[in-house]
Every structure is written in C-alpha cells, then in structure tokens.
Amino acid sequence: MKETLTDLLNDSLDRACRDGSLAVKTVPPIQLDVPKDASFGDFATNLAMVLSGTVKRPPREIAKTLIDHISDLDGIIARCEIAGPGFINFYLREDYWLRTLKEIDAAGEAYGRSNLGKGRRVLIEFVSANPTGPLHIGHGRGAVVGDALARLLEAAGFAVHREFYVNDAGRQLRTLGCSVWIRYRQLFDGSVPFPDEDGYPGEYVIDIAKALQRRDADQYLGMDEAEAVERLSEFAAERILAGIRADLDRMEIRFDSFFSEKALYRDEKVQACIAELDAKALLFREENGALLLRTSTLGDDKDRVLIKGDGDPTYFASDIAYHRDKFARGFEQLVNLWGADHHGYVPRMKSAVQALGHDADALRVVLIQMVNLLRDGKPVRMGKRSGEFVTLSEVLDEVGNDVARYFFLLRRSDSHLDFDLDLAKTQSNENPVYYVQYAHARICSVFRQAEERGLSVPAAEDVTMERLALPEEIDLMKYLATFPEVVEGAAMAMEPHRIPFYLQELATRLHAYYFKHRIISDDRELSQARLFLIGRVRTVIRNGLTLLGVSAPVTM
RNA sequence: GCGCCCAUAGCUCAGCUGGAUAGAGCGUUGGACUACGAAUCCAAAGGUCGCAGGUUCGAAUCCUGCUGGGCGCGCCA
Prior knowledge:
Elements (H helix, E strand, L loop, with lengths): L1 H17 L13 E2 L9 E3 L1 H9 L3 H10 L8 E7 L3 E6 L5 H10 L13 E5 L11 H19 L3 E8 L4 H18 L14 H14 L8 H26 L6 E4 H6 L2 H11 L3 E3 L5 E3 L10 E4 L7 H14 L4 E7 L6 H10 L7 E6 L2 E5 L2 E2 L12 H8 L1 H9 L7 E4 H5 L6 H21 L18 H11 L1 H11 L4 H19 L7 H25 L8
Parallel strand pairs: 5-6, 5-11, 6-7, 11-12, 13-15
Antiparallel strand pairs: 1-2, 2-4, 3-4, 8-9, 9-10, 13-14
The protein binds one RNA strand of 77 nucleotides through helix 2, strand 10, helix 11, helix 16 and helix 18.
C-alpha cells in the first residue's frame, strides 16, 4: 500500500507540473514514513519540504497544491492533512486494512517474501573456521547470523548459495599436525614433552591422538617425522571438520558447499589468478623477489605482497584466487561474514575485487563482533590457546538451539554481545526468547479451544471482517502490513536483528489485544472474525521465526 | 603515529537512507486471574542521546575537533 500511495503522490506531482501549479524539474525520490505518533496519520511524507528548496515556495503551500492534485480513484484515503512545517499526513480508510488480512491469508508462508533480488545469484560465505579446533561461541554467532542472512536474502528473492571456506593449506594445519604427533607419541612414551608455544594444547587433540591409536596402533612411530605430521594433520582436520559439521547440523545450518583452500593450489588457480593480475599490469616485483599487487591505487593504504621473497604465496594471494573463483562460478554478489578483528582486511579485499574487474560493492563484508560468555555475571575466560574454552556444542547443550539463535540475533552483528548463560537458561519471563514463542503458542491454544467448542473459521470471503474495528485490531492489521517492508529492509541492510525486534513488537500487540478482548464469545460471527485475525498474526510470527531459524511451538 | 568501529534511561540495547513529544526489555514502585494459557497485561518513576562547534526549515542520525573504550595496522593465516 506504500507503493499505491507513492504512485498517487507521483501522479499528483506530475499533474501539478503539467497544469503549471508547480515548476519541478527533477523529481526527488518520494519518502513515505509511518509516523511514530498515530495521530499524525497512517503515512506521512516530507515531499513538500523537500521541494520547497527548488520551487522556492513555502512548504505548506506546496503541500496544499499536492493534496489538491491527488486523484484517489480507489478511495483508499479517508483524509489528508497538512501538519507542522509542511508534512502531509495521510489517513487511510480503516476497512482498507482488512485487505492486509486477506493478503496474508492468500500468501501464507510466502507472506513477507518478495522479488527484490530478481533471482540474482549471491554467494554467502560464513563460519569458515579453521579446522584446527572445535567451534566456539564466536563461531556460533557468525554461523547463526550468516544463516539468518541467507534466509533473509532468499526471502527477498535472491538465489543464495551458502559456502564454508576451509583453510586447509596454511601453517596452522601443520601446527595441528605437530600437536597431534606429539600427543600421539605421548601415548606410547609419557616423557615426550609438549611445547609451551606453537601448539594446540586442547583436550580434543589428545582425543584425536587416541582415535588414531585405536585405528592404526603404532604404525606412525617409525615414520619420517615430516610425513607423519602431514598424515596426522590430514586425519585431524578431517575429524575436526566432521565435528564442525555435526555442530552446524545441530543448529540446522546447512551449507551448499565446503570449499578447500588446498584445492585452489592443486588446481593451480592461485597461479592463474596471479597471471591474470599480471596481464592487467597490476603487479610489480621488489629487489628481494617479492611480487606485489598495486592495491594502493584501489583504495587500500599500501601495496600488498602476493608472493613472498622466498617464493611462497601469501594467504592474500590464495584469498584473491578464491574470490576470483566465486565470480567465475557465476555469482554476481559476494557476501562474507568475518570476525570484526579482521576489519582491517576489508579495504584490501575490496581493492582486490576491483583489480579483478568488479565493482567494489560486488563484495559486501558483514563484521561479526566478539561474544563475551557470562556465567554468574562474570566473563568466562576463553583463551584460544589456553585450551580451556567453552565450545559451542557445550553452550548448545546448556541452552538449546532456539535460545542460542535468538540471543545471537538480538543485537546488531557489529556490536559486542554479552551472552549471559544464566539468563539464557531461565525458562521465565526474563528470557526474551519465550515472549514471542509464547504468543504463537497462545494463539494455537485459542484455536484448540475454539475447536473444542465446535467453532471453525470459514474461508476468508465468508468471514465478516467488518466486525474487526477495535483500535487494537486496526493496530494489529497495520503492523502486520509492515512485515514485508521489514523483511526487505533487513535483507538489503543485511541486518537480521530487525526481525526479532519486529516480532517482539508484534507479540506485544497480540498479548495486549488478547488480554483486553475475548477472542471466543457467544457471538459466532465476531469470534470467527477475531480468530481469522489472530490466525494471520500466527502466520506472520511463524514466518518471522522461520527467517531466524527459531521454532514456533504449538505448546510450551 | 595512522586507520576502522562504538558512546542513547540504573543495566542490556533499538532508533529504518536527517523528520514531529527519543523507544523497548530487565530492574524499581503500584495494580490486574471464579472466562480463550498470568511464560501475560496495565500504570508510574527514570534521558543535557559522551563534550564542543558546524551544515538546515529540522540532527541521536551528516561534517570537524576533543574525551573515553574496543579492534586493527606482517613478505602471519
């Protein structure tokens, strides 16, 4: 309906220009807002104020002209008012909102979806945790936000591909191999020392060594160290990756592909990428033999090394090759979720994207800030190398998937998050998760009640919807009508947290309505109308929760 | 030293591309179940939107400077 009004305004502006009442050369984008204060109408526009600069006439006068030129053929506007410095406030006919209910009824699960993305292919890369240890809570946040974002983009009409980048080529993996190697030998000879630095001390490494011993006994002991470390690191990475997949599976996060860094080298894609950049004359060599990319001309602070003086490629080189491959696979828009501590890497990667011949905006990076795990109000220490971190799977054991997901999605992803384990575990009103779920369960309960009393809800066209005229009812309908815009906005801004906020507000309105008015009464016609209304609320809550990957329970 | 992010109620945070009297949850205080689930609802108290300038019809939002906090600045990954 926002579009309908926008059209009406555009039309009015057009008409006013033609008959000479307004001299506007360039039409500004029309902005329509839902005012915070309901007394300012259902929608308001600042159009007159925006125009007053170019037209050189007082805003209120322009507003008057615009209103006079509106032709509301469908009769959706009850009245318009000029307010304050020159706002035009629109008051829609109340029965107009009944259309929203029919719309939701007709669309069902599809209500809120749009074709904004026009099927454009998007690759969203997230988690991408190194296969050197189990996922921790920070990874969990990235995983959940990435998944919700993917769902949002799908809802907005994009063709989304979810990818996990596996860093299986770097030094970290070798370090892991060494750690397992030492733990493995310790199983046979307790005097073998574990290094103070440069190793993964975690308990899970010992488990891996034991598993290796169970499978292959002592067959690595006599092996050449380099070869043993190589084979052990592979074994360990596979095993850890399997654990990561199990965690993701548990959160119902599925990837379309796992992309191996090692494969980039194996398939000589890094070399091909460097050759392409070289052909574009974007590379230069320094005295010591290092090869650099001229990123400084593309928005980065300085030029970056692709091949080191010793001949080895940098991580940056393989990363460029990786992104080149993403484009080569036909994705027009790339979305990366990175830990916020990598923010300095963003301009570098964007300049690389430009070097490959794409627009800098073809890559969008969503930064995920740190998570502080709190227990008893105190932060739980989680040194990466201390080995005593709390794993994601332990957190899931404690609080469950719904709660974990909701907590992660409750804040903007680029701000710090305190994850309060005690709060997350309380099954009470202090826990925000249940508020929305309860609204859904409550509606389901009313429907069960209705059924018991032999009350069924007829098809939309047989419901006497005009019986819905209470302020709380109109209010609910208006709010339901904004859901598609909220989804679109959240998708385009890549801010999933807007959805929980919307749902919370919707639940508030539902609870308030429920408390004040009876749904089921002796008035059969009224009862059916009200059931129809809360049925649509249920649809929207369910659709919203689905976008978050949180369940919508029928009972609690 | 340079760069990025943040600063809003006692606490945790929203505030949609600048819009009208800055919102929510928790906490505090006081109310509401013989009717559809009280995991709920209603009400009150609580703010110099870090500070100082600037841009304009209009600024929590944009610009500059400052203060305070987080994080980056490898031929590491």
